[in-house]
UniProtKB/TrEMBL annotation:
This is VNX1 protein. It holds the Pfam family YccF. InterPro entries: CaH_exchang, NaCa_Exmemb, NCX_ion-bd_dom_sf, YccF. The keyword Membrane applies. One of its GO terms (biological process) is intracellular calcium ion homeostasis. The chain crosses the membrane at residues 135-160, 232-262, 317-337, 343-365, 377-398, 418-440, 452-472, 519-539, 571-590, 602-622, 643-662, 668-689, 696-716. Residues 132-182 form the Inner membrane component domain. It is found in: Endomembrane system. GO terms for cellular component: endomembrane system; vacuolar membrane. Its main location: membrane. PANTHER family: VACUOLAR CALCIUM ION TRANSPORTER, VNX1 PROTEIN. Residues 348-468, 571-713 form the Sodium/calcium exchanger membrane region domain. It is a multi-pass membrane protein. It comes from Quiscalus mexicanus.
Length: 722
């Protein structure tokens, strides 16, 4: 490797950037042939020529290397991951942090390798077993599980025929009380038929060396073990209770996530240890330096808890999404079976429906990323445009349909509040939170101000277009007040009025139908057109704005073939099923939100801008935080900006188009609070992002402004008519 020189500009691109080119250049300089142009394409000079060692880029003209200065090289394990990384930097594409392919085992850290390792590895020095996680296991599971084994052992001894299993349960009672630093080993039986017939034999002890067996060995070949009477007694009286207990421990520990080692321990005990002949199970307590030399180790556990299990994935799916998937089934069954609310109330069903939206959003996001990474640009663009906003649109449309059927305009106001909350949250809260969390690890973070400027310009355009009908109605509409009082008791004095609004239906709705509605339709056509122009600008004519070059990081001979978690067809099926479940959960949420809106003392504005707006965006927030921790703030910012732009340029025009075919109470006229909050948020965001660098203080400013706006919505009165 070339000598590393400190970064003179203070711009750090994280551990995956910058160093790749140096390795390529060092290799290229030792290889014969004219390959300097390749090295120049991959190299990104980071120091002045006077202070850096000569590189391959310096061997060429300044005109050739001018493009190298603005390029950022990202590495990928395979072509599919390279496509996913490239899609992350494309405007309008869903940003996805997790891998869509299986990572090579040798590329993973030791911490991650430990998460996926089986509990059959004996370490020479495991350290002290007295840890907080182990004590937690003792308090939650160990004491009653050990007591259950003692009771089962007593039952087996009473049956006399099950005495061997009683002795095994007695030994396992001590093991499961504190299994740490102990090993369960399957004792090998001599293979020779003569030894079986003789009825005597020797076997290596756990620590090595010949030791006489404590029992008379047998040949357990074929199905002889299952034909014994003691086995039948065990399977009828002992095993079912223990298997049920281990199943309960396994499910509970898995749901707690940090105790997944306990879940693995219980699963292996129920599936292997308890189904072995008792003569072949040996339990030993290891010293710090003892290592079994022979025999198969079935269980060996040192720690009951591991805080890094939040990274654990099953078939590429994060463990949190796996654990929340049964919640979707519970929500659907409870919502549609218990329609009269005999078992639970509307508040519980509404909460379950909202929580179910989170894992479904995750599955939709991963399916979109998988399909886009394995397809060409056109297919990826269509999938992202079609399903990118399906989560929010599903809820909005079902709410508008329910409001239209009931003749309740509160649903339309809640939808407007949710739209505004998504816009404000993605402009202020998402990038602000990413700046704060990323700033804890990195003192200063830089991002591509040019690409952020494109999103900012589209945000200005979209906000101006969305609120143009609102401003028009306030200029030309008639102010109508519900109740007025003369403060000075003078007919010409001052009046105090309440519940004032601009009436657009005066004179049989002439102003609305002749002026406001055509303006709404015009805006709804222009905004998607501007979005398409932005896509063409960033993805076709000005791709250099993003300064991204995706390159395979492995040298020749070290390429890894892509093993995708989800194939395209599997991802498509999951995408469609998740969309159907999302529609059902959204229908349940809107079905049971009416009592909450009616009986709650909290403003409907606050419910819309917080719960309904930000809960579906939680997977995106997690992705943004992960990007920020890796010093890739550009993607964290683009996540929020992309969602905000899609709200104004895609979701709102689609809702307007929907009202044409299905008349609802939704009109593109927002309250003053929504207008002021949205415009102030966009202006503040553009001011913060002007210089292309930020720190945790600027992120704190954005988050604090967001919470101030939430306080305003919290204390604001509910919309008129609700």
């Amino acid at each position: 490797d070339a000598p590393k020189v400190p970064d003179s500009r203070g711009d750090s691109d994280g551990p995956r950037r910058g160093s790749l080119c140096d390795r390529h250049c060092a290799a290229i300089n030792n290889v014969q042939g004219d390959v300097g142009e390749l090295g120049c394409h991959l190299h990104r000079p980071r120091v002045p020529p006077a202070t850096s060692t000569p590189s391959c880029c310096q061997q060429h003209s300044e005109e050739v290397c001018e493009s190298c200065v603005v390029k950022t090289t990202l590495t990928a394990e395979n072509a599919v991951e390279a496509n996913k990384l490239s899609n992350n930097y494309k405007f309008g594409f869903k940003k996805w942090k997790s891998h869509v392919t299986a990572r090579p085992w040798e590329d993973r850290s030791e911490i991650v390798k430990e998460l996926y390792s089986d509990l059959n590895i004996v370490r020479g020095s495991g350290g002290s077993t007295l840890t907080c996680g182990n004590v937690l296991y003792l308090l939650l599971f160990g004491w009653w599980l050990s007591l259950l084994y003692v009771l089962v052992a007593a039952v087996m001894f009473i049956t006399i025929m099950g005495a061997p299993y009683g002795r095994l349960c007695w030994d396992l009672a001590g093991y499961f009380l504190w299994p740490f630093g102990k090993v369960i080993q399957r004792v090998e039986v001599p293979k020779s038929h003569q030894a079986c017939e003789a009825g005597v034999g020797e076997s290596s002890a756990l620590l090595g060396g010949p030791t006489a067996l404590r029992w008379r060995p047998r040949c357990w070949v074929g199905t002889g073990y299952w034909h014994r009477a003691s086995t039948a007694v065990w399977l009828c009286l002992g095993y079912p209770a223990l298997a049920l207990a281990h199943g309960l421990v396994c499910v509970t520990a898995w749901l707690l996530i940090v105790l997944i080692p306990v879940a693995k321990l219980s699963a292996r005990a129920a599936s292997r240890v308890l189904l072995l002949p008792p003569e072949r199970v040996l339990i030993r307590c290891l010293r710090m330096t003892e290592v079994p030399l022979e025999g198969e180790v079935i269980l060996c556990c040192y720690r009951a808890a591991n805080p890094y299990y939040y990274k654990y994935a099953v078939d590429g799916i994060n463990v949190f999404a796996v654990n929340l998937l049964p919640l979707v089934l519970v929500t659907l069954v409870l919502g549609y079976v218990d329609s009269p609310n005999h078992l639970t109330g509307s508040a519980v069903k509404f909460t379950l429906a909202l929580l179910s939206i989170m894992p479904l959003s995750y599955y939709i996001g991963m399916a979109i990323a998988s399909i886009s990474a394995q397809s060409n640009f056109a297919v990826g663009a269509v999938v992202n445009a079609t399903f990118g906003s399906i989560t929010e649109l599903t809820f909005y449309i079902t709410a508008l349909i329910k409001g239209s059927r009931e003749g309740n305009r509160c649903y339309a106001e809640v939808v407007k509040s949710a739209l505004t909350g998504t816009l404000v949250g993605c402009v202020l809260f998402v990038p602000g939170l990413c700046m704060v969390i990323g700033g804890i690890r990195h003192q200063e973070q830089r991002f591509n101000s040019r690409s952020a400027g494109v999103s900012s310009a589209l945000l200005f355009l979209s906000v101006g277009g969305v609120f143009a009908p609102t401003l028009f109605s306030k200029v030309y509409g008639k102010l109508v007040c519900g109740e007025c009082h003369n403060v000075t008791q003078n007919p010409l004095g001052h009046y105090l009025c309440h519940n004032c609004h601009f009436d657009l239906m005066d004179n049989n709705g002439t102003l609305y139908y002749s002026h406001v509605q055509p303006l709404v339709y015009t805006v709804s056509i222009l905004l998607p057109a501007a979005y398409l122009i932005g896509l063409f600008f960033t993805l076709k004519t000005h791709t250099h704005i993003y300064d991204i070059h995706i390159s395979d990081c492995h040298m020749p001979g070290h390429h890894h073939s892509a093993v995708v978690h989800w194939s395209r067809w599997r991802a498509l099926v999951i995408l469609l099923l998740s969309t159907l479940c999302m529609s059902a959960c959204a229908d349940l949420a809107t079905e049971h939100i009416s009592p909450i809106l009616t009986n709650s003392t909290i403003s409907q504005y606050f419910i819309g801008v917080t719960v309904l707006a930000m809960v579906p965006e939680l997977p995106e927030i997690v992705n943004g935080i992960q990007f920020a921790l890796q010093n890739n703030l550009s993607l964290s910012i683009e996540i929020g900006n992309c969602i905000a732009v899609q709200v104004c340029m895609l979701q709102i025009p689609i809702l307007v188009l929907f009202t044409i075919f299905y008349p609802t109470n939704f009109t593109l006229v927002f309250s003053d609070l929504h207008v002021y909050a949205s415009m102030f948020s966009v202006v503040l965001m553009n001011y913060i992002f002007m210089d292309g660098k930020c720190d945790y203080f600027q992120g704190t400013v954005l988050v604090m402004v967001y919470f101030i706006l939430l306080a305003v919505y919290f204390f604001a009165p509910s919309p008129s008519g609700c």
